[in-house]
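Renewal narrative, Specific Aim 1. Our central claim is that a sequence can be written position by position from structural information alone. The example that follows is taken directly from our test logs and has not been curated for this report. It begins with the structure tokens describing the chain, in the order in which they were read.
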């Protein structure tokens, strides 16, 4: 069920629960060889509304007025309330063999026998608090697990391939304009000299010819852009920034901090989404980017950079259809501010969104 919580969110005093640092959590896993990840079933709906406050969540339907008895998705304080509950329930285990980050519960151990004891202790605590897991989304007794955008193994922490896949799969340019689009993306954080063979193609009067020097430079740029230290670890003490964009057949986004990329996102549009208006594609790009990096964006206020000025008025829109109401409900669960950014300055997200246009041209 989709509920528009903007009115109550606008008059709600924001509650902030301390959020653990990502690097501290990852450091705790050192020396562990076996892992399990527990996902709760509709976690928000397992939290009872405070008695007497249900009326604040009233919603109007054609069947009458209804009130939420459990915590609905979309309330501005819902994520931090959920985090506080998880910390209270699992407090005895956190820092010993459990890491909790909102609805992600990671259990780590140095042996299988020890892991069984740890799992039993966590399950007993969850059962006592009447919190129930979603077995289909849980992972048990594995030596490799994805956690908060990183892959955890006994050997250490690896960058999740999904964070850089949009760059690794970037198509080879076939025209001067495609070279320029690729340079906007790939030369964002790497040395100019590396890209010299590509820059040469963009000069006026130079005939387009894609040879071995260009191919080598192109692949080297992609390789540099998808390896440390260019992909930095998120610092929760500093402000995150999100850029997203949409083109005719694709959407893209980049998750940044201090103008340095943390992760990339790109998706090809299909089905009914292809027929969305420009504004609705931009809104969809924002929703998908938020879904991708929600674990980092929930705790504190972050900045959304958009060259589509109408997105600045999300909170004041009145007439919403079901799909848009659902999107707005999701967006409003985040502590964001939107800042306008000229399209010519939004180069990375713009290039990522146009990646699939280049794929289509390549196929033809």
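The sequence written for that structure reads:
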């Amino acid at each position: 069920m989709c509920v528009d919580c903007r009115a109550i969110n606008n008059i709600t005093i924001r509650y902030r629960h301390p959020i653990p640092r990502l690097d501290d959590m990852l450091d705790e896993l050192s020396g562990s060889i076996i892992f399990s990840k527990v996902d709760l079933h509709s976690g928000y709906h397992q939290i009872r509304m405070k008695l007497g406050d249900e009326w604040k969540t009233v919603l109007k339907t054609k069947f009458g007025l209804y009130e939420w008895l459990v915590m609905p998705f979309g309330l501005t304080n819902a994520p931090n309330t959920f985090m506080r509950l998880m910390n209270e329930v699992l407090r005895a285990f956190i820092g010993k063999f459990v890491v909790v980050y909102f609805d992600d519960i990671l259990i780590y151990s140095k042996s299988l026998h020890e892991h069984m004891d740890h799992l039993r202790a966590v399950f007993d605590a969850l059962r006592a608090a009447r919190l129930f897991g979603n077995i289909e989304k849980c992972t048990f007794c594995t030596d490799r697990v994805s956690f908060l955008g990183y892959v955890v193994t006994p050997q250490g922490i690896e960058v999740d391939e999904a964070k850089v896949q949009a760059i690794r799969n970037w198509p080879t340019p076939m025209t001067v304009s495609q070279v320029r689009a690729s340079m906007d993306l790939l030369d964002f954080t790497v040395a100019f000299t590396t890209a010299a063979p590509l820059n040469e193609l963009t000069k006026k009067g130079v005939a387009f010819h894609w040879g071995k020097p260009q191919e080598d430079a192109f692949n080297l740029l992609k390789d540099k852009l998808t390896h440390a230290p260019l992909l930095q670890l998120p610092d929760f003490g500093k402000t995150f920034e999100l850029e997203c964009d949409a083109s005719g057949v694709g959407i893209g986004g980049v998750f940044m901090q201090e103008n340095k990329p943390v992760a990339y996102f790109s998706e090809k549009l299909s089905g009914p989404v292809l027929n969305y208006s420009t504004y609705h594609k931009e809104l969809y790009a924002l929703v998908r980017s938020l879904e991708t990096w929600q674990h980092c964006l929930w705790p504190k206020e972050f900045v959304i950079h958009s060259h589509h000025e109408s997105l600045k008025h999300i909170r004041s829109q009145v007439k919403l259809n079901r799909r848009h109401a659902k999107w707005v409900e999701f967006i409003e669960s985040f502590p964001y501010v939107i800042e306008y950014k000229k399209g010519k300055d939004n180069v990375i997200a713009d290039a990522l969104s146009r990646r699939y246009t280049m794929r289509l041209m390549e196929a033809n």
